Fold:
Amino acid sequence: MKQIFLRILGIEVGFTTKVEDFIKHNGPKITYTKQPLQNEFFVRSHPLLFEHGINDLQISMSEWGDTPCFFPTGERSNIPYDIFAASFYLLSRYEEYVPHVKDMVGRFPYKESMAHQHGFLKQPVVDLWAQKLLHILKERFPTLEQKSKSVRFTSIIDVSVSHSFAHRGFFRGGFGVLLDLVGLKFRKVIQRLLVLSKVRKDPYDNFTQLIDIHKKSGVSSAFFFQYAQYSRYDKNISTENNAFKYLIKSVADYNTVSLAASYSSFTNMDLLKLEKENLAQVINKAVNYVRLRYNRVDIPETYRNLVGAEFTDDYSMGFTHETGFKSGTCTSFYFYDIPLEIQQPIKIHPFAVHDYALLKYESEEEIFKELDKLYVQVRQVKGHFLTVFSNELLGSEQKINWIELYDKIVARYHV
Structure:
């Protein structure tokens, strides 16, 4: 209720289970139950919010105007769907508690999601339902007050690998040259040697350029650095490298710097805490925000670990290889832990775009066509348009000049 009314619609709301208090109240009021008391605004409740644990729910999709919806309420209800139960289903990631097939790195694949299967992944349906509810409430209660809200845009830069060739040490650098020679990647060998001889700048070292882009537009942005030991899935620069530490410090002078947690720390809370503490020592600031390697999230254990490591905000909620709204919203929300039946004290900031999801498009025009469709949806509900780009892709040589495209994206969507 707080998510729908307070955070999305900006309407203060109170609660009571006492009939006499409800009847005495003279302002706008809603009953959320099986039967109305009098002639007040009534939303017939689906059983979901009164249940415990995970149950086998049978979901049948319908349409509410031009918006997909589920959990119908029947004729007596003032709205045709129980959007509170439906919103809870999406925001709690209920479907991830149900048995499903994970991908090769342990993620919930977008093709398994109900939103993708029923064609509403590109719509922030929770926010759209809230706007429909607001329209009906204002017809019933014309004096209803709400706080103003405006659309926001935030750009996240994910730095799991800060440099392609530089600062990797003699052994890793030499092994890289050998692999390139064996693979007949002679152009890469030349590029590597030019970087190591300091004739050319490392292609992934585009941080000054990114900071200038952010400063020019005034866009809200944050850099997430991996600060971890080398492993099979974690291949960043050594945390002992002074040039790497200086880079992180210099970026922190201009932008928010937070932790891109390593793959190795996924099930190791002690290691996660250590990475957090080590990064905080480098930037001399508290590290409260986190992104998870590969956007891998195990519901609910991941968020319990993040809370245990004292993170306050997570930026991992979204699909790596498909654009859209994984949790059905473009508004930040607190994670609800269903088995424990508590709201965990960690705020989730869902992203709509990960740069890898844009690789399937052949041109800038196709990319902007996709981004525009998503942004229009977010702007319609005055939500938060959040994108994730990596310095790695932005520094790569491909058909599309990604750093130039990124500059255009920031200029186009910053508010």
Summary: The chain has a mean pLDDT of 92.
